[in-house]
Amino acid sequence: MHGRGIRRLGWFTHVPWFRVAALAIAATAGCGPLGAEAPDTVVPQVEQVEQGLTQVTGFGSNPGNLQMFRQVPAGVPANAPLVVVLHGCTQNAAGVEPGGWTAASNVYKFYVVYAQQPSSNNPTSCFNWFEPGDIARGAGEALSIKQMVDAMKAAYSIDPARVFVTGFSAGGFMVPAMLATYPDVFAAGAINSGGPYRCANSMTEGFSCMSPGISKTPAAWADLVRNAYPGYTGPRPRVSIWHGTNDFTVRPANLTESMKQWTQVHGIDQTPDTTDTVGGFPHKVYRDSAGTALVETYELTGMGHAVPVDPQYSFPGSSTACGATGAYQSDVNLCGVYHQALFFGLTETSTPPDDTTAPTVNVTAPVSGATVSGTVTVTASASDNVGVARVDFYVDGNLVGTASTAPHVFSWNTTTVANGSHVLGARAFDAAGNSALDADTSVTVSNGGTTPTTVSFTSIAAEDGYVKANADGSAAELGTLTGLALGRGVDGKHNRPLLSFDTSSLPDTASITQAFLTLSYSSGSGDPWASPAGNTLVIDVATGTFNAAATETGDWGASATASAVAGVAKFTSGTIRSTDFAGAGASAVNTRGRTQLRLRFAQNPAATAYLFVKDGANATLTVVYSP
C-alpha cells in the first residue's frame, strides 16, 4: 500500500470551534505527492475483523492512503449490488456501521464497503473533499475508493450496474466527487449533509462552502461535473439529497445547490415533479420525461447535523431495526437508510405505501363543561392503524405533560392556573410523525382561596454561559461559542450551561406552587438522550448563585441547593417546557435575588452528542405562587 507525504488538512471538524485550529495547522502543513493509478483488477488481502467488519488490504495502489472494510451478508446471491459508505469527520467505519447499512445489507442481501480515513491523513479523520488532488478522476482519495470497488468486483460476484455510494458530512461532500469522476462506476448516490461537487478548491473555500454556502447557476455547477470526466457520454448517476433544516455546520443551502447541480447534469429543470411528505418531512422528486426519478431531496425539519435513523422501525419483511442512535445519528422517526436503499432499488420489493394516516385522539375525562378543582386526572383515548407513539397534553395551548404508553393520562394540578374557563387538549403521534389534535374540552376551574399568580422571568444573557470539563470535572474551562452547549462535544468535554434569573420581584411571603423552565433549541448533532440509552437532561437549582453571578469554571461541579429537580425531554427544534420542579426545586427559587439554574445530562454521554440552546429572552423561568 503506497503512502503519501504530509498532506494538507482536510475538512477539520463538524463544528465551528475547530476552524481556527484547522487554519493554524494547515498553515504549517505541506502537500505530499499523489500516488499513481493502479490497474483496475487487484487481488485484495483480508486482514483483521473490526466490530463485525473485515478490513481488506492490498486493494490497489491506494494513492489516497485510505483503509477499506467490507461487510458480506450471509446468503448473498450472485450478481449482487454493492454500496460504498463514507463517514464524516471524527468518525470511522466501526462508528458509522451501526447507522443501518449493515442491517439493510443483511435483509436485502447486498455487499457494503466502508471506506475509512486514517488520522495519519487527517487529524480528525475527514475525507479531503476540497483538495483538487483528492477529487479528480485517477488520483488521490477518489481513486482509492474506486479501487475498493474494483477489489470487491474481483473477489465477489458484483453487478456492475448496481454500485452505489452514500456519505455524511465530509463523506457527503465526497459522494458527488465519486459520482462526477466515476459516472461509469456508480449508478446512484446519496448525499447526507454534504454539498455540490467542487464547491471548494481549498480548505478556506471549504469553510465558505459549509457556511453560509456558495451559490452558482445550475449550468455553472453542471459544468464542474462534466469537466471531471471530459468526453464521457454515458448515463449519469441518480442522486438522493438529505439535509437537516437546523444544520448549522453545513448549511441547508447546500441541498438546494446540490439539487441545481444534478438536475442540470441530467438535463431536467429545477421544478419538482412530485412534492409530498415522507414521515412528516418535505420530499421532492425531479423526473425526466419518462417519469424516472433522477434527483430527490429530503428536508429534515428541525434536525441538525446528522443522518436520520429510526431504531423503532423494522425494514419491511423483517424484524431488523433501522440502525441505532449515536454520534451524528438522530432518531427523527424516519429510516434514512431504507429510503435511500429504496431509491437505489435495493429493496427488491414494490414501494410500500407511506403511512399518512393520522391517529385519532379524544379527551375523555374530565368531560367538557365540567367544573374541576385541586388535582385532576386528564385522560385521552388514542388509536392508530400502526400504533400510537405518544400523547401530549395541553392546557390553554401550553404543553404540560406527555404519556408514551396507554392508558394516556396526565395529573393536572388546577391550582397552577387562575379560576375560570380553560381548554384541555391532547395531541397523538404515530411512529411516522403523523399527528391529530383534540382541543374542544372546556372546563371551569374553581379553587377556593386566593387565585394563584403566574409570572415569567427571562434569563440574564450577560450572566449566562456554559462550562465544559472532563467527565470527572477536571480541566474545566468556559465555553466561547454563541449559545449554550449541552452534552459532549467533539473535544470530548462535557458541557453544562448556567442560566441566571432575577426573581427578587417575587413577594417574600410567596408560596410557590409550581415552577418550570422553557428552553429554545438552536442547533445540535447526535442524540445525547440516547448516549447512553435512557439518558436524561436534568435541572439543578441554586438559591442565589452557584458562585459569582457571572458564569465561572467552578460552576460545573458546584453544589446546588436542589439537584435534578426537573427534566427536559428530547427536542430537536422550537421550544420545550421542562417538567414541573419538584418541591425542593420550587422552594429553592429565591424571592430576594438571583436564582440560577444549571442544566446537565444525568449521565455523561459516551460519544460525541450535543445541542445548543438559546439564552436571554429565549430562556424563561415561570413561577406560579400564592401571595
- Span between termini: 77 Å
Q: Strand percentage, roughly?
A: 35-45%
For the residues shown, what is the average pLDDT?
Answer: 87
Q: Spans of 5+ residues with little confidence (pLDDT < 50)?
A: 1-51
- Please give the share of residues in helix: 10-25%
Q: What is the CATH class designation of the largest domain?
A: Alpha Beta
Sheet with the most strands, sense and barrel status: 12 strands, antiparallel
Fourth CATH level, the homologous superfamily of the largest domain: Alpha/Beta hydrolase fold, catalytic domain
What's the structural domain tally? 3
GO molecular function: hydrolase activity
Organism: Corallococcus exiguus
Keywords: Hydrolase, Signal
Protein name: PHB depolymerase family esterase
In short:
By secondary structure, the chain is an alpha+beta fold. It is built from ten helices and 34 strands.
What does this structure look like?
The protein has 627 residues and is of the alpha+beta class. It has three domains: 16-344, Rossmann fold, CATH 3.40.50.1820; 360-449, Immunoglobulins (Immunoglobulin-like), CATH 2.60.40.10; 455-626, Jelly Rolls (Sandwich). Helix content is 15%, strand content 36%. The protein is built from ten helices and 34 strands. Strands 23, 24, 25, 26, 27, 28, 29, 30, 31, 32, 33 and 34 form a twelve-stranded antiparallel beta sheet that branches. Strands 1-2-3-5-4-6-7-8-11-10-9 form an eleven-stranded mixed beta sheet, with helices on both faces. The longest helix has 16 residues, at 140-155. The protein is globular. The relative contact order is 0.09. Residues 1-51 have low confidence and may be disordered.
